[in-house]
Design goal:
Domain PIN: 4-123
Order of helices and strands: EHHEHHEHHEHE
Number of strands: 5
InterPro entries: PIN-like_dom_sf (IPR029060), PIN_dom (IPR002716)
Largest sheet: 3 strands, parallel
Protein name: Nucleotide-binding protein
Number of helices: 7
Radius of gyration: 17 Å
Pfam families: PIN
Distance between the termini: 46 Å
Shape: elongated
Strand content: 5-15%
Strand order of the largest sheet: 1-2-3
Length: 138
Amino acid sequence: MIGLDTNVLARYYIHDEDDKEANKQQLAAKRLFESGQSLKVSKTVILEFEWILRGFYQFNPEDIIAVFQNLLSQPHISVESQQEIEQAISGLADGLDFADALHHAHYQDCEAMASFDDRKFARRVKRLGLAPRITVPK
C-alpha cells in the first residue's frame, strides 16, 4: 500500500496547463492512480486538500464535493476515517465549513462539542439537527 501526500492528490485532480513541472507530476500522479495499486489517504491529507482546492484554486463547494466523491469511489484507494469524511462532505453540502464538519464528525461518541464559533457553526449544526450538539462555553 502506498500513502498519498496532498500534492499527489492535487496533481491528479488539478490541471495547471501552463506549468511544465506540474504537467510532469500530473502524468506521474495519473500513472500511480490508474495503476490499480493499493493506495491510502489520511484524513489530514483530505483536510489539507480541501483547503488547497478552496483557498488556492478557488473551487466552489460543489466542485470540492465532486472531487471527494470521485476519490472515495475508487476501489483501490483506502481513505482513513471514511465515514467521518463522508459526513464532513455532507456537512459541506449543507453549508458547513469542511474542517468544522470533519471535527464535528469525529465527535459522534460525545454528547456535545464545545466551540466558540456560534454563528457559522453552532447555529448551523442546530438548524440541521446534527448530533452531537454544539455548546458555547461561557
